[in-house]
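User: I've been trying to design a sequence by hand for this structure and keep getting stuck. Would you show me what you'd pick, starting by listing the structure so we're on the same page?

Assistant: Good idea, let's start from the same input. This is the structure you sent:
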């Protein structure tokens, strides 16, 4: 539903706001109007609350019973202006509006729930926009003007004959169809006359009879009946059940009971659904699968998210619930202060634990939501919650396996990210112009669809609390361990140690003291060794910084750096930046080692760090094997490369050019031009062959150097070979550039001369084709030049296509080498190992699975569970497609760059086809590195840091 009228509207001097077209009917009609006041009003009223920002505007939910003017000024509570109303949308019972912020106001600076205010003179009652009942036929309704009500300057007013504030036009005396509607007999006479005239003119009866006979003889009626039967069957089998299901879901949606409407008193939950005519209330119980299944009784301890939403953490062997709850409230249940307890409560978004109920105890007299009674046996893995049917409450037991933080298991609503968050933006920015503009448009389209959807499912309180519940699941194991290790409450008294036990304990302590003295000697030398090692790392970091400055140096700011031109320099930059970042990663992991194990960000850092270490180790191992082979067989590899280069870059190219000088594939080319171009290219090939002859004796030494560089990893010889391929095929690149320039110049000239024959001329300034008059001498010269160039074009085209294909093959080989480098530098090998070994360490989301207890054997089936439904909450592992998401992005960039209409157009017109930028190609490998590397001395400060003062053994 939208409250916008015609064009504009809503201003004090408008041509009809909140109304329809040009005729009038808008609010505050007339061209005049009182002078507009630009200051804040004397009194402002609350209009709505901020929901979110969209396209630079604030989307707000209306809390006022009235509708605001369009372009009405909006204020804060202190009467400071923030913008004007731009759109009013949504259904009648849930109105939204957008605020276009004024200069200096940013839409994203507001938080959800911030209130906006409006002046009282800028509000309209909702009745203005509701349709009025239609008057009886023949009567002239009040408020109808011959040309419509007077509208203001802002809009076009309502259509002719439209009531002010209505949405449907009424029949008036000025309407063109009013005369026919008021005289039915005349209308019927006119229709009969037209039908008779058409029948007499075109013999419709005889033609219709012939058509029926033809349809009967050719089986048209039979096929129509079969089609009708199939459609009826489709309607009965598919559409009717779907309609029934939709109607049932609609009825269920009307009885959506939110837990936020229940007060904090547990007694209300037992009586809120006392009648049998109302649907039952829902109570959720989150139950860990690791609770001991014994016949012993105990108390259930956990978090209480709401009166109908509880989370069980642990089972305590105690009976006095009031004493335990009091100890949980004041923290006296723990033997000593636990520093991690506060962080656990922050993760769970709760302030303390509660006694939720009892397990395997005597059944209570009545059901209480604040103190449930559960039964769990060894034969049945599912708990049974006591709840008599007269309470009209359905219990949903959501079971889950507690993630072990020591094994780095955890749950997450969103898939884990294997790339640095701060680098994600930089990687997306290099995805090309199309990715830059198309992806934001997709997001904006999704937001528009959400805002203008006809029926929107409201987010319930249970759905909003899912994030907090996932945090509670992640810290459930540690909280349960703390309760079991530090609880003071014990049943009975502990026995004192005997004399023999004390003697054994003293002997054990003597051995531990001797080992402690030996270990203290080792600790004396440990800091010195650590400082020497860190000093070596700092010196290495300084040397790395010098090399990084060299490969990043630019002659001018707009010039390319060495790493943007050479694959070897790029690989050296990546490897050195990894060496600079490893100490920071190691320090981050060591710093968090003493912290909570359930803190999720450490898991992604752990995966990135060890994945990079593993990749470098594999790279070095493969490089050592490859380097050993190249060093031992340098002469044989040099001879093989010499034959390969001579065969394809010299002899093969010479034969191809000689073939083009004749009649290639039977094409009759211009002999003189073909010989001229062929001789020119053959001269360059011969000169290049002579230059390569001087390099040939040193080729074995070059192979030995490449093999020696392989000890730094297999990526180094691959990158060196990529650079050598560019250097050794430089003459082919020159041939491609020369032939492309000649072909493009010739094609452009032919197109210009073609425009000359048509009396047209290209306007370079306005970038269009304009008409132009030419003299006879200009047309004659143009005809001669057009004829010459047109007949010479096939010869140039053949040479151009030959070298263009060769250039595309070289680019394809280099792209394959770059992809191989990306796999060796960024392959998610460690993540795949974790995915195979323990998929819970790589969460990709959660799923709910309904458990069918009827399939269990009779002895393992829970009893009296008709009012209980069991759901298993499982962690979904990260998919392999998500692991290789950046590889799909790299493939998309290569496809969009080389296999695109733009590249095809460049090849057809002879324009230069640039290779993909090295920054876009290597952004995949830089996704594991920070955008800015740390300073040199950060290595020393991060690894050494402030040293603690030594303590004597008696103070330890």
């Amino acid at each position: 539903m939208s409250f916008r009228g015609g064009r504009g509207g809503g201003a004090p001097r408008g041509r009809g706001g909140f109304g329809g077209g040009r005729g009038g009917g808008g609010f505050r009609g007339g061209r005049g109007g009182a002078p507009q006041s630009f200051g804040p009003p004397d009194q402002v009223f609350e209009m709505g609350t901020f929901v979110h920002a969209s396209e630079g505007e604030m989307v707000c939910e209306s809390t006022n019973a009235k509708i605001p003017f369009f372009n009405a000024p909006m204020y804060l509570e202190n009467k400071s202006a923030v913008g004007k109303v731009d759109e009013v949308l949504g259904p009648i019972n849930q109105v939204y509006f957008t605020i276009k912020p004024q200069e200096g106001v940013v839409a994203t600076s507001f938080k959800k729930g911030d209130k906006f205010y409006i002046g009282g003179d800028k509000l309209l009652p909702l009745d203005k926009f509701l349709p009025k009942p239609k008057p009886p036929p023949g009567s002239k309704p009040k408020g109808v003007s011959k040309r419509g009500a007077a509208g203001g300057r802002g809009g076009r007013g309502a259509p002719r004959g439209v009531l002010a504030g209505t949405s449907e036009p009424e029949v008036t005396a000025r309407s063109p169809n009013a005369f026919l509607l008021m005289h039915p007999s005349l209308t019927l006479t006119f229709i009969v006359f037209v039908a008779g005239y058409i029948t007499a003119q075109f013999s419709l009866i005889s033609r219709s009879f012939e058509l029926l006979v033809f349809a009967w003889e050719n089986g048209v009626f039979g096929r129509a009946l079969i089609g009708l039967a199939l459609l009826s069957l489709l309607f009965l089998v598919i559409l009717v059940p779907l309609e029934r299901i939709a109607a049932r879901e609609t009825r269920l949606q009307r009885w959506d009971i939110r837990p936020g409407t229940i007060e904090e008193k547990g007694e209300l939950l037992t009586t809120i659904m006392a009648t049998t005519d109302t649907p039952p209330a829902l109570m959720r119980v989150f139950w860990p699968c690791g609770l001991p299944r014994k016949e012993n009784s105990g108390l259930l301890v956990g978090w209480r998210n709401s009166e109908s939403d509880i989370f069980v953490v642990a089972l305590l062997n105690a009976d006095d619930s009031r004493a335990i709850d009091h100890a949980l409230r004041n923290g006296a249940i723990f033997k000593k202060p636990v520093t991690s307890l506060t962080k656990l409560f922050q993760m769970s978004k709760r302030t303390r634990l509660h006694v939720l109920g009892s397990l395997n105890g005597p059944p209570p007299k009545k059901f209480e939501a604040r103190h449930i009674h559960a039964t769990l046996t060894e034969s049945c893995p599912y708990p049974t919650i006591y709840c008599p049917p007269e309470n009209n409450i359905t219990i949903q037991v959501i079971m889950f396996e507690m993630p072990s933080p020591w094994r780095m298991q955890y749950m997450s609503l969103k898939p884990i990210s294997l790339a640095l968050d701060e680098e994600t933006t930089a990687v997306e920015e290099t995805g090309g112009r199309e990715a830059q503009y198309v992806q934001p448009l997709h997001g904006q389209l999704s937001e528009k669809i959400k805002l203008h959807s006809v029926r929107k499912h409201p987010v319930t309180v249970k759905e909003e609390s899912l994030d907090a519940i996932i945090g509670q699941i992640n810290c459930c194991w540690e909280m349960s361990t703390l309760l079991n290790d530090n609880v003071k409450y014990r049943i009975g008294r502990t026995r004192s140690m005997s004399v023999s036990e004390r003697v054994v304990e003293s002997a054990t302590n003597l051995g531990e003291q001797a080992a402690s003295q030996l270990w203290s000697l080792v600790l004396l030398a440990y800091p010195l060794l650590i400082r020497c090692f860190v000093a070596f790392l700092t010196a290495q970091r300084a040397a790395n910084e010098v090399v990084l400055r060299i490969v990043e140096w630019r002659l001018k700011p707009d010039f390319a750096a060495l790493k943007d031109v050479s694959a070897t320099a790029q690989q050296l930059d990546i490897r050195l930046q990894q060496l600079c970042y490893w100490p920071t990663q190691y320090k981050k992991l060591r710093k968090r080692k003493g912290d909570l194990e359930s803190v999720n960000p450490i898991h992604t850092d752990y995966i990135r760090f060890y994945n990079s270490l593993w990749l470098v180790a594999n790279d070095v191992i493969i490089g050592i094997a490859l380097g050993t082979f190249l060093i031992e067989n340098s002469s044989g590899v040099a001879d093989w490369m010499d034959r390969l280069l001579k065969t394809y870059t010299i002899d093969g190219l010479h034969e191809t050019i000689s073939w083009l000088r004749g009649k290639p594939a039977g094409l009759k080319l211009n002999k003189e031009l073909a010989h001229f171009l062929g001789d020119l290219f053959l001269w360059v090939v011969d000169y290049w062959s002579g230059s390569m002859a001087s390099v040939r004796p040193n080729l074995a030494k070059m192979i030995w150097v490449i093999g020696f560089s392989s000890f730094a990893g297999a990526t180094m010889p691959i990158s060196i070979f990529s650079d050598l391929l560019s250097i050794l095929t430089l003459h082919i690149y020159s041939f491609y550039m020369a032939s492309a320039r000649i072909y493009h110049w010739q094609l452009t000239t032919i197109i210009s001369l073609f425009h000359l024959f048509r009396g047209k001329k290209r306007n370079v300034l306005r970038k269009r084709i304009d008409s132009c008059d030419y003299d006879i001498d200009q047309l004659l010269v143009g005809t001669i030049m057009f004829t010459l160039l047109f007949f010479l074009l096939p010869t140039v085209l053949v040479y151009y296509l030959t070298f263009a294909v060769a250039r595309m093959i070289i680019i394809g080989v280099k792209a394959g080498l770059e992809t191989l480098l990306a796999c060796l530098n960024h392959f998610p090998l460690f993540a795949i190992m974790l995915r195979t070994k323990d998929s819970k360490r790589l969460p990709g989301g959660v799923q709910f699975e309904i458990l069918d207890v009827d399939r269990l054997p009779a002895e393992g089936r829970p009893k009296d569970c008709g009012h209980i439904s069991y759901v298993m909450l499982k962690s979904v592992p990260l998919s392999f497609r998500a692991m290789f998401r950046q590889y799909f992005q790299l493939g998309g960039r290569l496809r969009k760059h080389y296999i695109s209409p733009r590249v095809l157009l460049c090849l057809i017109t002879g324009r230069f086809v640039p290779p993909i930028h090295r920054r876009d190609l290597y952004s995949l490998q830089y996704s594991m590195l920070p955008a800015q590397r740390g300073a040199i001395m950060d290595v020393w400060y991060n690894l050494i840091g402030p040293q603690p003062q030594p303590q004597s053994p008696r103070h330890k």
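That's my pick for every position. To get oriented when you compare it with your attempt: Residues 440 and 446 are 10 Å apart (CA to CA). The chain has a mean pLDDT of 76.
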